[in-house]
Task: inverse folding
């Protein structure tokens, strides 16, 4: 299947700093990318959906100024957690989908710990 | 009503049992359907696609009922290694929606 590479796989940062997570589709054009967050023992929660070249659409309750999403090309989307706080500590996963009716492919996830 | 609804479980079943999960979706224009498996602290991985004609892969059978807008997953002869969370996924135009997942625990 197609490959989506997400990195870093884990990051520890100080409170107040910003963290950027990259999600790359390696062998297909990802017209749509999704960013999820998952807290321990909870289900995936969609944060935002981004289509290449357009502004991301954020889910209710997700602050767009705090979670900056850029999807400037068909192979790369980034999520920047700005001014991170301990409550932002979570598992962040990206997913990419192409034009055809194929499944969504997931990145490996990024475990963020804010101390 | 949620776009994709699943019973979160947990389903605790003995080894060798048959277990079935259902998932309903609200958008009749949805185009494609999948079951994913997520192990603890890992990213979801595609288990199988779901077609109206049914899709069988070993001990796993997936079925789509467009008229009733639900999909199902049947696992026969459960193994300990089947313990995971199973996510129902519905794809439409530029949108992929995940269910909350059903947790399966296979007990020795």
Result:
């Amino acid at each position: 299947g197609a490959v989506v590479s997400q990195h870093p796989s884990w990051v520890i940062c100080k409170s107040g700093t910003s963290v950027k997570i990259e999600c790359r589709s390696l062998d297909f054009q990802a017209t749509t990318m999704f960013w999820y967050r998952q807290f321990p023992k909870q289900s995936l929660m969609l944060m935002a959906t981004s289509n290449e070249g357009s502004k991301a659409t954020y889910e209710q309750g997700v602050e767009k100024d705090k979670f900056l999403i850029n999807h400037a090309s068909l192979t790369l989307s980034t999520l920047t957690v700005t001014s991170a706080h301990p409550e932002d500590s979570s598992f962040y996963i990206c997913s990419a989908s192409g034009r055809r009716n194929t499944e969504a492919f997931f990145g490996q996830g990024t475990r963020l710990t804010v101390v | 009503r949620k776009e994709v609804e699943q019973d979160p479980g947990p389903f605790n079943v003995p080894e060798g049992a048959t277990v079935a999960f259902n998932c309903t979706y609200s958008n009749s224009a949805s185009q494609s359907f999948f079951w994913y498996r997520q192990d603890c602290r890992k990213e979801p991985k595609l288990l199988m696609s779901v077609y109206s004609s049914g899709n069988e892969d070993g001990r796993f059978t997936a079925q789509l009922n467009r008229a009733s807008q639900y999909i199902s997953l049947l696992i026969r002869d459960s193994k300990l290694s089947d313990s995971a969370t199973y996510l129902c996924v519905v794809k439409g135009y530029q949108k992929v929606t995940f269910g909350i997942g059903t947790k399966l625990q296979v007990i020795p």
User: Anything to note?
Assistant: Chain B has a mean pLDDT of 91. Residues 95 and 104 of chain B are 27 Å apart (CA to CA).
